[in-house]
Amino acid sequence: MSPSTIRAVRHIQKMASKPGDGIGPEVIRAGIQVLHKLASVSVTSESISNNSTGEVTCICQPLQQFANLRPTRVLRGTTSPLRNCPPANLDWLIIRENTKGEHAGQEGRTHIGTPWEVATEVAIFSRRGVERLMRFAFECAQKRPKKKITVVTKSSAQGNGLVLWDEVEAAVAKDFSDVEMDMMFVDAMTVRMTLESETLDTIVA
Rounded to an integer, what distance in angstroms lies between the CA atom of residue 27 and that of residue 33? Predict the structure, then answer.
């Protein structure tokens, strides 16, 4: 068969997009435009609404996606709220709990539409879940040049789940003597991230 008689086959790939919150919708919208412009295949997309955390929960929990990794750094040539921070001073790895705490999926509404309607979002922490995340975070910190980790907490206000969080963190830290560890309340952490970015490296929250 002559090559000229072979018809090109185009594969159609279907994608679902979840815009998220904050700048998410703007970023995803631009990303879809880029895909349509550059893709060598046909691209169709469907947006998933953000009316609950259920979509995230049904993905993260069955697949045991318990850690949300967020590398953070200042890129050369970009303008940042930390514009006076040299790029070398901001190189963080932020690790967030993805399947426990507020992401456990224990939520609901009752008496919808009535004056006595109630909505609940229950934060659930388990010793096993916290230890799994902490060990992962300390192992990440151990592999980075600074070998430094900051544990973010709010146990001053959440006296059960985050007290367990603090206790497990202290126990896990004993197994990583080569990692420098400190703890910050989340309120103070936001200030430190802005004013003393160079003192941070691996962050678990």
Answer: 10
